[in-house]
Amino acid sequence: MTTKTLKASATGSAILPALFAVILGLGIVTLAGHVQASALHDAAHDVRHATGFPCH
Amino acid sequence: MFSRILTSALFAGAAAGLIAALLQFVFVQPVLLHAELYESGELVHFGAEAVSARPELPGLFADPMRDGLSVVFTMFTYTGYALVMVALMSMAEKMGHAVTTRAGLLWGLAGFITFHFAPGLSLAPEVPGVAAADVEVRQIWWTATVAATGVAMWLIAFGGNAMAYGAAALLLLAPHLIGAPEPESFSGPVPTELGALFAARAFGVGMAAWVLLGGFAGYFWQTESKRADAHA
């Protein structure tokens, strides 16, 4: 019984952290690659071209 | 769990990002700077006179601010990729698939196809100065293509039945059959030789960096897991 409860909670606690990490990662990629604010665009300009993000 | 994902992703992303930045400086940046001479009008081809293919280019790190920012943003970008990949690795491991350095190389290749090659296949990596459709429309297509390709990669790796493979094939093909947003007219002043070289180099460097990212992520995920187990 105890083992079962532990297992269930371990599985449950695996999905949320992964989900947070995916959202954080996609947020970072969006910030670095897509946001068109001019300071960000200028700073990331060469990287966006070289990494294949749509630029300009 | 979250800290294990975070630590592995930060190590892998920073290492692969740094290597990607250095490879870009050597192989991509000179082509980009060369193209910018045409974008700015300093060089013009299509004229009666032939233009030298080897103009004087600013050397590596000629503009420390610009190049420094490129290093920071490349590491930042690859850390973002790493967070997504390591999180998915943790899910795959939960499903009983071993995550090793070797398996990580395949993860990296799948990541390259998802985030770089698939969108770039119809929306080729752009050298500065080329004609292109509206940036917002291209970003929507780019995002949809990455999403569809990412799901397809997962289905190919873990689907395990004909239905999954069929769905993956459809997801891989659909964005390109629908087609990427294209410019109304061509107005790019950059020689096609530079555009082609830029796209090829961007893909090559991207693939190298991604495969390394996958290998690093698999490696750090394993070491971090061992450390967590030792503490438990």
UniProtKB/TrEMBL annotation, chain A:
InterPro entries the UniProt entry points to: CbtB_put
Identification of the protein by name: CbtB-domain containing protein
Automatic annotation (TrEMBL), chain B:
Source species, domain of life: Bacteria
Amino-acid biosynthesis listed as a keyword: no
Pfam families registered for this protein in UniProt: CbtA (PF09490)
UniProt keyword list: Membrane, Transmembrane, Transmembrane helix
Chain segments annotated as transmembrane: 69-92, 104-124, 139-157, 162-178, 198-221
UniProt-recorded name of the protein: CbtA family protein
Source organism of the structure: Ruegeria marisflavi
